[in-house]
Amino acid sequence: MSVSSNTGTSLRETFSGRSAFIFAAIGSAVGLGNIWRFPYVAYTNGGGAFILPYLVALLTAGIPLLFLFYAIGHRFRGSPPLAFRRLHPKTEMFGWWQVLISSVISVYYAAVIAWAAAYVFYSIDLAWGVDPAKFFLHDFLQSSEEVTVGFDFVPKVLALLVAIWVISIAVLATGVRKGIARLSIVFIPLLCILFGLLVIQALMLPGAEVGLDALFTPDWLKLTDSSIWIAAYGQIFFSLSVGFGIMLTYSSYLKKKTNLTSSGLVVAFANSSFEILAGIGIFAALGFIAVQSGQAVNEVVSSGVGLAFIGFPVILSEAPMGNLLGVLFFSSLVFAGFTSLVSIQEVVISAVKDKLGCGRVKATLLVGLPSAIVSIALFSTTTSLNLLDLTDAFINSFGIVAVSLAIIMTVSAGYGALPVLRNHLNSVSSFKVGRGWQLLAAGLTPIVLGYTLINSIQERLADGYGDMPSLFVGVFGWGMALSLPVIAWLLSKLSWSKKSALYHPDVDGLPVADPIWDEKVDKDLMEKERSL
Amino acid sequence: MSTSAIIMMTVAMITVWGGLVLSVINLKNHPEE
Fold first, then answer.
1. Contacts of A513 (CB under 8 A, 6+ apart)
2. What is the CATH number of the domain that holds A343?
3. Interface confidence: ipTM more than 0.95
């Protein structure tokens, strides 16, 4: 084919093959959460016993949902709004909702990567000194005591955040093959090497076995507590990043005949493999500091921003060759985070590109520049930390969980699309799925997601969010989360011009087939197409 | 480390990393068309 699939506006871009797709998908799934969330969640939810609900959640929800979004993206060949538009025009708003969620996440996620990048350099001379908490909050972020949104910029954070945006826009502007895929093909092996070295060094620290003992000693009684199971499903759900629209977008860039389910299994198990490795590395290091400071592991354990920028530097100051360990740890955060950031931004870029029917560079700039400006304005200031914390909590609980629940319910119960999607998966994949898949994807996962959503709503309504003022929580938490579906609905009312990707041919030059909601007719059609 | 912790660490590593190896083998057995 003579048309370049990376620069042309008429044919959809494609990955060069399934390996490129798998690397990109692993790059997206393996993110900051694998390193700083999984070890803590496992430890606080039964330790070694957590592996049981974790595996059950992976097999009964994570992988089935991954297949569902692969099937939607691959069958309907589009960014979330376009794919859902083709599935049924009334579902288009869910695609826009995912796009808006991704655009919000990209804005603050970039800031955390900028912080990690700074800490790679701070590790060299352990710049945080004896008080890493004071260094992080006062010296580095210059965090304001007030919970508000201000515009006092912190020059170092600002410079790094600008750099992160410039690099990510440059990567995304070069396209799916040369930008996104190539980035992951380089960064993911590099991440594995760096993190592997970190784990080896952590395991050699005195006290490492105390940490591993704390992480893996099973507390079987906890398995009778439903909250452990919800925690396992939550971890799998967020870790695989299934509700963001990323997996849907990436699978739309696959060639028509691609082994979807077998590729999905590799992505899912690779993501979990990295989490187990992270658990071992982080807890070996926590065991060391517990022994050094004469405390129990439960007194030194933490997660998220607190673990990375306060807890871990404490360990690095005490550990032999702490500066090397620090460079490995923070570089890992940068590499894991950056490939995820690019994938989140791609959801938004692909949607704009499909809607306007414009080229890759134009779409990247149309999305990248405003996102960068908002990100820099809000998150390189002295008031960034509270806003980041609040936005992250609300977009996860009331954005990703809500949109996923809405999509699963509408696609399955509303439009009965699952048999058609199952046919699609089976027509291109070697690992076949049956009615069991439908039952798990559309039966079990809505129950778990629904329970999680109701739980979060009740908790937030009763307790607010930490000590944050209710006006701040109301505007940037509730206001933000609730406005997204409304804006998404409005966006879905805009018509698709003749120039838009809705009217573009498929990667093989043929028109994208309209959905056929008759299971039998659809199956015959699939078999006919496959035999061609 | 206690025996139960060692067992559970081994179980976690075998199931998840084993799952990765099996899924890669499964994919390799079905080359791209």
1. A525
2. 1.20.1740.10
3. yes
